[in-house]
């Protein structure tokens, strides 16, 4: 009984207040309309009777002075002129009847006079006075005081209710009534100040202080809290009644944003979407929740559409999607929430399309492209994902209906509004994701014992299920293909960008649907049926290319032609990938790269650069997924499956980089050039690993030979890429060459010096001259020396030449040292050194130093001569520190004798050749 009493009290209070507010609004609007109508009527009658001569003789400066005086009068706002008396208007008309109507000749003469160029006074125009900055006092008094005051008012109402509860002054019903009264009073005061003379006289001068909105917001918050307390605290209102009343308050607050601004709408949106969390019910009803959320969403979208507030639309869209994502988990399965979710998702999509996106759509062919509505496209994509969540709920025919309706809405918007033409691509993406997430009813097929087990042992499908699955999604793919082609043809050539989006959707969605269906039905094993479907897509795109070329404009290349041509290439590549296996799949994908680059040469559409780069990334992902290409590579060097799996992508991407060399340097060209370097490096590295491990490219260890050849490869690639950078240009190749050089240096120091050093690992090194030591240290040294020489001849930076030469020298020095160790210790180099071996080290190092000095003298290079000095000095330190302590007998004597002879010889060379002294004069 108390519930109905409280409800009656709230209705008794709310209905009169709403009526009074509505009456005030209507009366005020009527008064303003009447005054405007009278003013317009008076001006019409006056202008109809006044001749041109009278207008020319008017004194505008008098009127202007009067306006200026009125405008500058402090605290004075011009009053609305009174409604004229009909009798006065009739008298004016009678008085003006005697004025002669000017003849056409007089009007023409007067017009000729006014056609002459006006003469302007030479007086300078006064500069506008600067706007004074607002002081801290003004900000505090006009802005902060209002916002803080509104917050204080709302908190005051809360604290007042708390105090009354603590002191026990009023019973629960009285508290609810007083809360409603205070809230209604705040709302009425805000409306009165917004519409009354005080708002016109005071608030018009303080636009930064929304006092009426603050009062109304405080009242709305208080009313919301009052209704919630009536339900949750005191139990006066049941779940259904409280739910409805909270929703009404929230929706009313959203609508009030039309008068008070966007932040007011956000307040109502928060209240609306929080309401279901505040109401607890023992019998949850998904129908009621879905309907309530749709009402709140539609109201918010409608307000956002009227005022063009995208912030309000976003504030409503995000929680609407959030409620949809967790909708099913809020209810027990017996209530079938999946059905309500499907209806709710379709409703949110329809509201988004109709209220946030739709604007002046036309069925006729577009006359030109429009600026893309990025917000609308993002909103459509987000709501489409919600539809897919509902479709994944397995609601049978209803899910299919919702999916088709969503696809139809997306296609319809793209067809009628060029600003959202990419919506047709969104439709294709939604269709492909639907193929991915649809349940194929595997377990029922197992029970029926009509098995067609795939290669993974898990996919067991009845033929009827497969036919239904392929038929439904095949029909959608065919429809999207037809719509895409028709849309491209109708938009070419006048709306080239729009035509490009439709042409892209005509093959991307069907082809991806074929690939996904192939994986789900055949487990990505070779299947001629799906390959035939991909070939069908390719043939359709070939025919579309021919038709679009006929409609193409001669002034600019058509995006639609380029998209259709790429679609034909993609269809053939996909067919080959489905029909073939292992290395053939990679080759089929890689051949698309030069084909797209070739199409770009015929139709230089910028989007083809992005398509080339994306296909290259797909090929790179394919290689990362299966680096071995095939299970059995064999042991034949070079001529194996790696040559196709890695060599074709390297050649294709290299051709694409060369083809795009004249294009502006952007991120897609940078990706193409980077992929060309990566594929070339991967090809060589894969072949090296194949040779080093006897065909096992996935072997877990790294050998000395492999590391040395990798270092040599990095040096060669660095030199080649640097040369390509000089020819092609771009912003990637030169940095890539530097990176490859650093990788070679790091590999030499860490790899050859530590990780695979035979003294550290203890692995056998094979033959003395042409074993692992030669390929691990000798080959990289020779390559580094050749690279340094080439860099010096090409005029590279001296630092690059010196660094490469130092790397060559260090690797050669290590090779010679390790060869000496191999001679004395055999294939295992981890034993201790004998006296003879220590002497051999000294002799070898001194020979290296002398040879280095000879080269430095021949080329006239001081750095090379200094390097020889470093080697000889290091050898001298070794002789005096190590040989003197550890070596004995003839070998110690030999070390010192050899060192002495070499040092004396070097001194003679310096004295006689490098720095000769002048002979003393005769008789000195």
Give a brief description.
With 924 residues, the chain is an all-alpha fold.
Structural notes for this entry:
- This is DUF2339 domain-containing protein.
- Keywords: Membrane, Transmembrane, Transmembrane helix.
- It comes from Siculibacillus lacustris.
- InterPro entries: DUF2339_TM, UCP035905_mem.
- The protein has 924 residues and is mainly alpha-helical.
- Among the domains are: 2-73 and 83-93, no CATH class; 616-848, no CATH class; 849-924.
- Helix content is 75%, strand content 0%.
- It is built from 34 helices and no strands.
Task: Set down the secondary structure blueprint.
Layout: H1 2-49, H2 52-56, H3 60-72, H4 86-96, H5 104-115, H6 136-167, H7 172-195, H8 197-201, H9 211-233, H10 239-260, H11 262-278, H12 286-307, H13 310-325, H14 337-357, H15 374-391, H16 397-416, H17 423-437, H18 442-448, H19 463-491, H20 496-522, H21 528-551, H22 559-579, H23 583-602, H24 607-625, H25 641-659, H26 667-692, H27 704-728, H28 733-755, H29 758-761, H30 772-793, H31 798-825, H32 835-859, H33 862-886, H34 889-914
Helix pairs in contact: 1-4, 1-7, 6-7, 6-9, 7-9, 9-10, 9-11, 10-11, 10-12, 11-12, 11-13, 12-13, 12-14, 13-14, 13-15, 14-15, 14-16, 15-16, 15-17, 16-17, 17-19, 17-20, 19-20, 20-21, 20-22, 21-22, 22-23, 23-24, 23-25, 24-25, 24-26, 25-26, 26-27, 27-28, 27-30, 30-31, 31-32, 32-33, 32-34, 33-34
């Amino acid at each position: 009984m108390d519930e109905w009493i409280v409800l009656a009290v709230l209705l008794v209070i709310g209905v009169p207040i709403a009526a009074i507010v509505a009456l005030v609004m209507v009366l005020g609007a009527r008064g303003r309309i009447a005054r405007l109508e009278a003013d317009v009527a008076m001006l019409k009658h006056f202008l109809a009777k006044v001749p041109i001569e009278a207008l020319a003789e008017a004194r505008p400066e008098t009127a202007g002075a009067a306006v200026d005086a009125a405008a500058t009068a402090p605290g004075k706002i011009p009053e609305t002129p009174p409604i004229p008396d009909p009798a006065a208007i009739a008298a004016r008309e009678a008085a003006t009847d005697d004025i002669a109507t000017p003849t056409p000749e007089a009007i023409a003469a007067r017009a000729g006079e006014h056609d002459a160029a006006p003469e302007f006074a030479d007086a300078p125009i006064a500069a506008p006075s600067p706007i004074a900055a607002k002081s801290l006092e003004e900000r505090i008094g006009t802005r902060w005081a209002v916002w803080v005051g509104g917050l204080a008012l709302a908190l005051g109402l809360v604290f007042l209710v708390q105090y009354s509860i603590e002191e026990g002054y009023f019973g629960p019903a009285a508290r609810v009534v007083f809360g409603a009264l205070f809230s209604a009073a705040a709302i009425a005061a805000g409306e009165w100040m917004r519409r009354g003379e005080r708002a016109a006289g005071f608030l018009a001068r303080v636009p930064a202080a929304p006092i009426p909105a603050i009062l109304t917001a405080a009242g709305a918050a208080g009313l919301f809290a009052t209704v919630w307390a009536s339900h949750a605290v005191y139990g006066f209102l049941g779940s259904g009644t409280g739910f409805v009343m909270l929703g009404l308050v929230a929706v009313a607050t959203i609508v009030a944003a039309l008068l008070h601004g966007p932040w007011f709408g956000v307040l109502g949106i928060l209240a609306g979407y929080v309401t279901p969390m505040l109401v607890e019910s023992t019998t949850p009803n998904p129908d009621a929740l879905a309907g309530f959320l749709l009402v709140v969403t539609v109201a918010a979208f409608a307000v956002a559409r009227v005022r063009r507030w995208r912030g309000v639309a976003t504030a409503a869209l995000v929680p609407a999607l959030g409620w949809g994502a967790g909708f099913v988990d809020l209810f027990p399965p017996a209530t079938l929430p999946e059905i309500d979710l499907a209806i709710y998702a379709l409703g949110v999509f329809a509201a988004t399309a109709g209220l946030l996106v739709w604007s002046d759509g036309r069925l006729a062919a577009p006359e030109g492209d429009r600026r893309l509505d990025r917000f609308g496209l993002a909103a459509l994509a987000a709501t489409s994902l919600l539809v897919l969540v509902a479709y994944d709920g397995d609601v049978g025919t209803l899910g299919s209906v919702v999916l088709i309706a969503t696809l139809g809405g997306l296609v319809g918007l793209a067809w009628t509004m060029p600003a959202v033409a990419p919506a047709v691509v969104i439709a294709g993406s939604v269709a492909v994701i639907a193929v991915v997430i649809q349940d194929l009813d595997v377990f029922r097929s197992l029970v029926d014992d009509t098995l067609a087990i795939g290669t993974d042992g898990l996919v067991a499908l009845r033929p009827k299920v497969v036919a239904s699955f392929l038929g439904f999604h095949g029909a959608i793919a065919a429809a999207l293909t037809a719509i895409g082609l028709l849309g491209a043809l109708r938009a070419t050539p006048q709306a080239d960008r729009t035509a490009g989006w439709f042409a892209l959707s005509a093959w991307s969605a069907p082809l991806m649907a074929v690939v996904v269906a192939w994986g789900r039905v055949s487990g990505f094993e070779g299947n001629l049926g799906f390959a035939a479907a991909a070939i069908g897509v390719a043939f359709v795109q070939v025919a579309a290319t021919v038709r679009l070329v006929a409609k193409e404009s001669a002034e600019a290349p058509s995006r639609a032609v380029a998209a259709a041509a790429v679609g034909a290439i993609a269809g053939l590549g996909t067919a080959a990938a489905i029909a073939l296996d292992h290395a053939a799949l990679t080759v089929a994908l890689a051949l698309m790269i030069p084909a797209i680059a070739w199409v770009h040469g015929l139709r230089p559409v910028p989007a083809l650069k992005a398509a080339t780069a994306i296909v290259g990334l797909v090929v790179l992902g394919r290689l990362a997924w299966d680096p071995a290409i095939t299970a059995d590579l064999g042991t034949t060097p070079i001529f194996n499956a790696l040559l196709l799996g890695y060599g074709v992508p390297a050649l294709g991407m290299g051709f694409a980089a060369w083809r795009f060399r004249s294009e502006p340097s952007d991120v897609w060209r940078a990706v193409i050039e980077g992929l060309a370097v990566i594929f070339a490096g991967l090809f060589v590295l894969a072949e090296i690993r194949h040779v080093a491990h006897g065909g096992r490219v996935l072997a877990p260890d790294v050998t000395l030979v492999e590391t040395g050849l990798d270092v040599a490869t990095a040096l060669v690639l660095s030199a080649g890429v640097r040369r390509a950078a000089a020819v092609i240009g771009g912003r990637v190749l030169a940095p890539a060459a530097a990176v490859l050089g650093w990788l070679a240096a790091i590999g030499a120091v860490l790899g050859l010096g530590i990780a695979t050093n035979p003294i550290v690992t203890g692995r056998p090194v094979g033959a003395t001259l042409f074993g692992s030591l030669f390929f691990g240290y000798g080959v990289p040294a020779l390559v580094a020396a050749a690279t340094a020489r080439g860099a010096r001849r090409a005029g590279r930076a001296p630092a690059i030449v010196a660094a490469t030469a130092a790397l060559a020298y260090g690797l050669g020095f290590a090779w010679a040292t390790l060869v000496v160790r191999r001679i004395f210790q055999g294939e295992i180099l981890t034993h201790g050194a004998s006296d003879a071996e220590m002497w051999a080290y000294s002799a070898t190092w001194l020979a290296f130093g002398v040879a280095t000095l000879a080269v430095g003298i021949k080329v006239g290079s001081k750095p090379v001569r200094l390097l020889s000095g470093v080697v000889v000095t290091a050898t001298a330190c070794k002789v005096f520190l190590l040989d003197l302590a550890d070596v004995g007998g003839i070998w110690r004597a030999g070390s010192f004798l050899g060192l002495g002879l070499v040092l004396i010889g070097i001194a003679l060379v310096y004295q006689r050749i490098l720095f000769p002294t002048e002979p003393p004069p005769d008789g000195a």
